[in-house]
Design brief:
The chain contains 19 helices and 2 strands. About 70% of the residues lie in helices and about 0% in strands. Helix 7 crosses helix 8 and helix 15 packs antiparallel against helix 16. The protein is mostly helical and about 425 residues long.
């Protein structure tokens, strides 16, 4: 019986950590002004909880308990470090004078400023001084509450690699003296763009895995959605935040329909729309309306959300408004011109006007260096060629696309489509 109780307590601690860790690290970073030290203090508090709670039970306010424990550890740390004696005196005096009532009052104090602290932590974790990979890993660690092992499995890289990225990221933030603050003025837009880029990077890796045996990793999508919703609450007047949330909500609504019983990919036009999550679709459409009401209809994420909304509103594949989708891609290309946007616009034009017109746009992208090795370009060309009845050419393009992807499920689908267009492929 005791073993079961201890096991239940450990599960409760894990759940509490997932919920409270970001707020805990954010609050501690405000105090110690070093995100690495803050995370260490938070981890110390977690270890204390693992030691104490199985005996005493989970406290009524676990977040306040963890913060109180971490602050006491901070006092001890400051006492041992003479170079921060002034901070020790300030923090020590505050806590020692209120020792008896501290736990009861901490939760109220945390709640007063926690929104600002979380937003500061978001901007710090996603600071452009870090690489995209480091930003993603650090964000999942600090704000998502994921372990290095979980992050490593999500991105299919060694755990040691993720651990090194996180350690280097925290060191870089400290050495660069990145302030724990929400940027103001003109800097806000560029920094917010970095935050949204990281969140969407995490979502996309879950929605369409770059490599490995699985096409999707729903847990990563859920983490990104949770982060996006947090930022949308904290930066409620920023239209692009709502645009990104709308895009992710609607895309996530299709997750269950994207794969078959054996994990095989199901193309958008072949999906059972009855399996699309209507609650997520409605949440996405509401977020899109919010973005548009704030004047952000032409923002990159809002435009992409409007595109996926066209699919969500179509009751059947043949009712999709491809002409509107093509026009939205025209608008997106004007805002953020890129070969990837052009590729997607070509697909939309191919559906709205005809495969010959779509193929013409795709062929114009052949010399783009950024698309070299990008498997979706030959895959899109193969699809157009197949519709035009040019089977041999389609087969070769499907085979080329299969050779470029690192995702096993995508490769299997592409080779299957290659076989359907003529001579079976070697070794397939």
């Amino acid at each position: 019986m005791e073993a079961v109780t201890a096991s239940d307590t450990h599960r409760a601690i894990d759940a509490v950590w997932r919920i409270e860790s970001a707020k805990l690290i954010a609050g501690l970073t405000r105090i110690v002004r070093d995100v690495g030290v803050a995370e260490d203090l938070a981890q110390d508090a977690l270890v204390a909880a693992l030691e104490r709670w199985p005996e005493t039970g989970v406290p009524d306010n676990p977040g306040a308990w963890l913060m109180a424990t971490a602050k006491h550890r901070a006092i001890d740390m400051f006492r041992r470090a003479e170079r921060v004696e002034r901070k020790h005196e300030e923090l020590g005096h505050e806590l020692e004078s209120r020792h008896e009532t501290m736990v009861g009052e901490l939760d109220e104090a945390i709640d007063d400023d926690i929104g600002d602290d979380l937003l500061r932590l978001v901007f710090m974790s996603c600071h452009p001084v870090l690489s995209r990979e480091a930003r993603a890993a650090l964000t999942l660690r600090l704000l998502g509450g994921l372990t290095t092992d979980e992050i490593a499995r999500a991105f299919l890289v060694p755990e040691a690699t993720v651990a090194q990225r996180i350690v280097r990221a925290k060191r870089t933030l400290s050495e660069a003296r990145v302030p724990f603050e929400v940027p103001r003025g003109p800097e806000l837009a560029s920094r917010l763009s970095s935050v949204l880029e990281v969140i969407y990077l995490i979502f996309n890796e879950g929605y369409s895995a770059t490599a490995g045996d699985d096409l999707v990793r729903p847990s990563l999508c859920e983490d990104a959605l949770r982060l996006g919703r947090i930022v949308a609450e904290l930066a409620s007047e920023e239209p692009e935040v709502h645009g990104l949330v709308a895009l992710m909500e609607i895309q996530a609504s299709r997750l269950r329909a994207r794969t078959g019983p054996s994990g095989e990919p199901i193309l958008l036009l072949d999906q059972d729309r009855g399996r699309w999550d209507q609650l997520l679709i409605q949440r996405g459409l509401t977020a899109l309306e919010r973005a548009e009401s704030l004047g952000g209809a032409n923002g990159p994420y809002a435009l992409q959300a409007a595109i996926v909304a066209c699919h969500a509103r179509a009751r059947a594949a043949d009712q999709t408004d491809w002409r509107r989708i093509a026009s939205l891609y025209d608008a997106l290309a004007a805002v953020v011109p890129s070969p990837i946007v052009e590729l997607n616009r070509a697909v939309a034009v191919g559906m709205a006007v005809g495969p010959a017109e779509g193929l013409e746009i795709l062929d114009s992208l052949a010399g783009e260096s950024t698309l070299k090795g990008y498997h979706l370009l030959p895959a899109a060309r193969a699809d157009m060629l197949e519709k035009l009845g040019r089977g041999d050419e389609a087969r070769r393009e499907f085979e080329r696309a299969a050779s470029l992807t690192r995702n096993v499920r995508e490769r299997e689908l592409l080779l299957k489509r290659a076989r359907e267009n003529g001579i079976p492929t070697q070794g397939s």
